[in-house]
Amino acid sequence: MTRRKQAASVSHTEATIVELRADREFAIEYLKSALEELDDPDHRAVGLLALRDVAEAYGGLGTVAREAGISRESLYRALSPTGNPTLRTLLAVLHVVGLRLSVAPAGAASAQG
Fold first, then answer.
1. Which DSSP string do the residues of 58-75 spell out, in sequence order?
2. Whether the predicted pLDDT of 3 surpasses 70
3. What does the pLDDT read at residue 9?
């Protein structure tokens, strides 16, 4: 019986963060898609967790919180599945990671796909 060397497992979140860090355009599209879910209370956690992943990829939550002028604990809470971040928090986090909030017609997402 031969012994196989097992590859170290990487969580889905860790793999996503690596990919987000490596491909800025992917990070932008990932976040755009996920933030569309903020409109639906049943899927709001998707958008918040995606923003958390992008924050992790672009500096880490501690650094992003410090640069955004938010306590680390408040940022963790705001970007949790049950979080309810203020507009100020969303804008500050997006600014720190080099992105901004924009507006599109409500039917734009369904008309494109």
1. TT-HHHHHHHHT--HHHH
2. no
3. 76
User: Cα–Cα distance between 16 and 40 in angstroms, integer?
Assistant: 23
Amino acid at 16: T
Q: DSSP class of residue 80?
A: S
- Output the furthest CA–CA distance in the chain (Å, rounded): 62
- Which residues lie closer than 8 Å to 69 by C-beta, 6 or more apart? 92
Three-state SS at 78:
helix
**Mean pLDDT, range 22-40, rounded to an integer:** 90
- Quickly state the pLDDT bin for 35 (edges 50, 70, 90): confident
Domain boundary assignment for the chain: 12-103
CA distances from 86 to 24, 50, 60, 111 (A): 25, 16, 20, 29
Residue 41 CA to residue 51 CA, distance in Å, equals 16
Q: Is 32 exposed, middle or buried (0-12, 13-18, 19+ CB in 10 A)?
A: middle
